[in-house]
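User: I'm putting together notes for a lab meeting next week and I want to include a structural view of one of the chains we've been expressing. I don't have a solved structure, so I'd like a prediction I can at least talk through. The sequence is below, exactly as it appears in our construct file.
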Amino acid sequence: MPHQPDPGPLDRRLRRRGLLGVAAGTAATALLGTATTPAAATGARGRGRPVLPPGRLGIQLYTVRDQVQEIGFARLFEHLARHGYSEVEFAGYTQGTGDLSLPALRRLLRDNGLRGVGSHVAYHADGGDPDAYSFATSLERVLDDAEALGLPAVGTPWAPNRHGDTVDAWKRAADDFHTYGAAARARGLTFYQHNHAEEFGFAEDRPDVRLYDLLLAETEPDLVHFEMDVYWAYVGQHRFSVRPDGTPAPFEPLDYVRAAPDRFPLFHVKDGEREDGTRDGYRMTDVGDGDLDYRHFIDTVASLPRQRRRHHWLVERDDAPDPVANPAGSLSTARRSGRHLRSLRSRGDCG
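Assistant: Thanks for the context. Below is the predicted structure for the 351-residue chain, given as structure tokens.
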């Protein structure tokens, strides 16, 4: 039998915060099937309550970044509003047709009936540029900009590996995040981190420690929140269900949210078609064309006590502007994905 390390402070913190065991157990096995059932096969367009809470259909503007550059925010916002979107998450505040002032950008949101709910900003200066726009180099400016746009939250899409991938390195990143979270809270804002797949890997010096569990355990719930990218979480499930020593380490992404729903105010709704035998296990698609069961996922989260209207669901497809991967184009992705999500109806069995 493989050596089982002594439970330490990390294990105690995970227990205290209700997160130990999230990554294992029979719940993971039971939920795995529903997480990878094609939506088309589940009768998603039923007669029940809409799965998506009213006014909570959003999009990460990285999905349509080519349109930001080509037609500008004003025309893009008109398109998004026409197709039922209520919320946007920014990935930069400039456009190819010229910069806008932040008050002008905020007015464009308002004029189109849209709300800004967050923004992605670099964690630190890539390459060490002291003038780079990031939390580490420009914290007050980042928060000033979020306030100017009326955003309730601002976050980073970067992994917490600024100092490396050891346990101590991620603890140092947790300290950084506490700094950003405290500064954000002092302004009435929320700080959050967006995952990719690598967060679900294991510490270099402690292969029994999943890095995402470590980050959750080492950060205070009132200072550091999370935006779960559902697609990348299931890629992480595919890639990191076995520890480096070969022992099983299954986990179910939905269980993280069940354990601490208030820590996950935002979600990226990104779909993928299963591709067995590949590194990631999925290939990105428009939402509704893949194998991730968003009716079950959103309905489960919305059915948690006092949670239905607390979360923001943001369409994203990383390769939407790529003419090879997505010849229909990014506006088609926005239109089709939004239409699918609005069509989903609850089965009423996910509470």
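A couple of points you could mention at the meeting. Strands lie at 57-60, 87-90, 115-119, 153-156, 190-194, 225-229, 266-269, 271-274, 282-285, 312-315. The mean pLDDT is 88.

User: Perfect, that's what I needed.
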